[in-house]
Write a structure and sequence with these properties.
alpha+beta; Neuraminidase; 35 strands; elongated
Length: 602
């Protein structure tokens, strides 16, 4: 048998279509005429049958139309049919936002799936706030699942502008899309009460609907995000809100608002903010280490931009602690700084606080909760299974310059709204750091301090005389009753930071350290390993541990020409690659801030 080659010509298919197009334009060898809207389109039966499942079936052996000279297509417009025929004869589909509905109608009716796919891609690529509602309705009518999902996502993201500028488009939205939008976990810049009003207006515009359908729609709303006063008004605003299902959801939302201190541990989807990622909150601190500011900064890691919260801190604090539980922010202890008058001269007074404040991002408000059992500054706090632990620290005795250090540990019981005693550390300690690994709390470094009190006017930024920073590390398994000693760090540290990432604990720079080394602790081997140092040492910075395991370091102070300089840099440490880099700059120099992750509405 002779060998042979099989060769392919890519130009043959193009030439074949071009030949049919020429025959069509010259109306030669056309054996069928398609009619739509009073317009006739001479065509070739063979090409139509080979390009469309509809025509393949229409011109089959057993149909009456197989020999018909003319076929009427009354459901199609001349514009839509002409465009699809041009596509069948040339491979090019001419479509615009104005012609999309008729072209898609013709392509779907004639079962030209390639043209349908092109229309779907055109819709997906061109989505914006002006057309997303119309495209969602078009995609739903023609079962274009990809375009429908993309349109619904766009509606959710553009809801703020749609409510203001295109509300009628929302009221004309198909029910499937509206339910999908109300199911979205991210609807930026829109309060839940506005979504409730939209749903009720939509029911008025498209009703009356069956009870089951209105329940399905309204049950997707998050009534726990609506203020109690608004919720009470809205619950009487429409008959659809009076059904047993919706009434029970409103009742649960009102009960949630009455939970008080237990709200963070009683979270549900009904009370969860519609945000997809957390922001880093920078609370307290300022461009001056002595005079902290009350402004709160929010950092968006996705776009690396900062914004300011409209709600400022209730106190001017430094050496405080902060954490988040259940979508709430807790501001704990620290030194309250106030302006005072001393012989008609401006002065600054400092008092150690045991106050605890809770910030609710749902309504942008601060609320004072139960105070700690002891006043604490330069202490550490951490969260284990939704329980806040406050560890060690020191306080300045009222009307004196005496500092007293404490070894006590207390934890906040949110169910009862009170603080309780935990396992006391072996000795008083302040300026230490803590981190959680598994169900154990680890504490490192700091200064031993004195429970009886040490005199001095240093306000906590300088070491006590004859006292050195510690290298010691302690751990407390919450199931046990005592603290246990672990392998010591290689560097004595004070006023430093610790964080957990990828199953290890990282200890970062503090004050009075001659080098810029950081180190990593492996709990299984009870061993510390030194890692890549920062090029420039700093202290008094804020730090946040990201879900990726990377650490972000915000601002701080460093020495330059014998003086302390407050910096604006934001550094990122890649724990997997052991690599540092600067990713952006703060809006202003900042030191003494505390950081945590919190879901925040735009």
């Amino acid at each position: 048998m002779d060998s042979y080659s099989l060769l392919y010509s890519s130009s043959h298919r193009t030439g074949l279509l071009a030949g049919f197009q020429r025959l069509r334009s010259e109306r030669r060898m056309c054996d069928v005429v398609l009619e739509a809207g009073g317009v006739s389109f001479p065509c070739h039966r063979a090409l139509l049958a080979g390009s469309s499942d509809y025509f393949w079936a229409l011109f089959g052996d057993a149909t009456a139309e197989r020999l018909a000279g003319a076929i009427s297509l009354p459901v199609l417009t001349p514009e839509g049919l002409d465009t699809v025929l041009d596509f069948l004869y040339s491979g090019w589909l001419s479509v615009s936002p104005s012609t999309l509905p008729v072209v898609l109608e013709a392509a779907r009716y004639l079962q030209v799936e390639t043209a349908v796919s092109i229309c779907e891609r055109f819709m997906t690529d061109g989505l914006n706030s002006e057309n997303c509602c119309g495209y969602a309705n078009l995609a739903e009518r023609h079962a274009l699942h990809g375009a429908l999902e993309a349109a619904n996502q766009t509606i959710a993201m553009e809801m703020g502008s749609l409510l203001q500028e295109n509300r009628d488009d929302l009221l004309g939205l198909n029910s499937q899309s509206l339910m999908a939008v109300l199911d979205a976990d991210e609807i930026p810049g829109v309060k839940e009460a506005e979504l409730v009003r939209l749903a009720l207006d939509w029911l008025d515009e498209n009703g009356p609907l069956p009870l089951l359908k209105s329940n399905l729609l309204l049950s997707r709303l998050r009534f726990g995000l609506v203020a109690p006063s608004d919720l009470s008004d809205l619950s009487h605003a429409h008959r659809a809100m009076a059904t047993p299902l919706i009434r029970s959801q409103v009742t649960r939302a009102l009960e949630y608002h009455r939970l008080g201190s237990a709200q963070p541990i009683r979270q549900s989807r009904q009370s969860t903010l519609r945000v997809s990622s957390d922001r880093v909150l920078l609370v307290g601190g300022g461009s001056n280490a002595v005079w902290p500011e009350q402004q709160v900064l929010a950092f968006d890691p996705r776009c690396r931009k900062f914004s300011s919260l409209s709600c400022v801190l209730p106190l001017r604090l430094r050496h405080h602690c902060m954490c988040s539980v259940g979508g709430f922010l807790f501001l704990i202890g620290g030194e309250e700084v106030k302006e005072g008058d001393d012989d008609e001269k401006k002065s600054v007074t400092v008092a150690t606080s045991n106050q605890v404040w809770r910030y609710d991002p749902r309504f942008g408000c601060w609320e004072k909760v139960e105070s700690m059992l002891e006043r604490r500054a330069q202490f550490s706090c951490c969260v284990v299974e939704d329980v806040i632990y406050a560890i060690g620290g020191r306080h300045t005795r009222p009307d004196t310059s005496t500092h007293a250090s404490v070894a006590s540990v207390e934890f906040y019981d949110m169910a009862s709204g009170g603080w309780r005693r935990g396992a006391t550390m072996p000795r008083p300690l302040y300026g230490h750091a803590s981190a959680v690994l598994g169900n154990s709390i680890y504490v490192s470094g700091g200064l031993p301090g004195s429970p009886g009190g040490v005199h001095g006017g240093n306000q906590g930024d300088n070491q006590d005389e004859n006292t050195q920073s510690s290298r010691d590390v302690l751990s407390w398994d919450l199931k046990g009753r005592v603290w246990e000693k672990r392998a010591s760090m290689s560097i004595a540290r004070f006023s430093h930071r610790m964080a957990t990432a990828h199953g290890h604990i990282y200890a970062l720079l503090g004050m009075y350290e001659p080098f810029c080394h950081i180190e990593r602790y492996d709990a299984r081997s009870d061993h510390w390993t030194r890692l890549k140092p920062l090029l420039t040492g700093s202290f008094g910075y804020g730090m946040a541990s990201m879900p990726s395991g990377n650490l972000l370091v915000f601002g701080g102070r460093r020495w330059s020409d014998g003086q302390e300089v407050v910096v604006r840099s934001v550094l990122e440490y890649d724990a997997k690659e052991d690599r540092w880099r600067e990713i952006c700059q703060l809006p202003r120099p900042l030191t003494g801030t505390e950081c945590t992750l919190l879901p925040m509405p735009d």
